[in-house]
Amino acid sequence: xxxxRISVITCTLNxxxxxxxxxxxxxxxxPKPFEQIIVDGFSKDxxxxxxxxxxxxxxxxxxxxxxxxxxxxAMNFGIQxxxxxxxxxxxxxxxxxxxxxxxxxxxxxxxxxxKWLYGRSSxxxxxxxxxxxxxxxxxxxxxxYRVLLxxxxxxxxxxxxxxxxxxxxxxxxxxxxxFSMDWDFWIRIREIKTEFLDxxxxxxxxxxxxxxxxxxxxxxxNKELIGTVKKNYKFPFNYxxxxxxVFLIIPLRLIFLKLRQN
Length: 262
What we know:
Elements: E1 6-12, H1 19-27, E2 35-40, H2 47-55, E3 61-65, H3 71-80, E4 86-89, E5 95-96, H4 101-111, E6 116-127, E7 130-134, H5 145-148, E8 160-163, H6 164-170, H7 181-188, E9 194-206, H8 211-215, H9 219-232, H10 237-261
Parallel strand pairs: 1-2, 1-4, 2-3, 6-9
Antiparallel strand pairs: 4-8, 5-9, 6-7, 6-8
């Protein structure tokens, strides 16, 4: 595997508000990634004009437009069309906060016999129309992620890097899932050797208009979480995990999200 062959996958749909922060963070990094793939759902705003501006600067940005069929389908398309060895999913409203991230990640893959790794993500919160980044170090850091994975998705996708061969072997994101596709994927590859990188890699925005926040308290969202656990774990553990999820984890997460927004 060559040094720093990282493919950044970014899916866009009318993303003009935040896409420039994403692009700027990726292409101001040192070293830069091997490529960034933009999978656009035929945006009608200035998204692609902004992307083209960064592409013209000599950055290896490849743009695809496909019919919107959900975020899982768009991410899968980007992965399938990538030419790098390592995949990072960085959504249009996510951005890197560690300029050395790609070099650090490449080095870890070269030195360690791992198939994927994950770092820490910070949270961007809108306060008085200004985005403030706060450290998202959690109480459960240091606990083996497999212990918590049946109850909570404790792997931040924007700070995770996965060898493309893992997707080839274990499959892509489940297109039947609208909310928990990343959690489902982490559960499926839970036995593969990984490593936690104790660094802040990227930030994600926490705002009331995001798909995650809008759907956290919906029946559809919670049913999908329950179905993900039931599908990936065996009886009777899966029912025990569902009980804990429904009566403890989901209520606590709702409280946490409301407190974060206030």
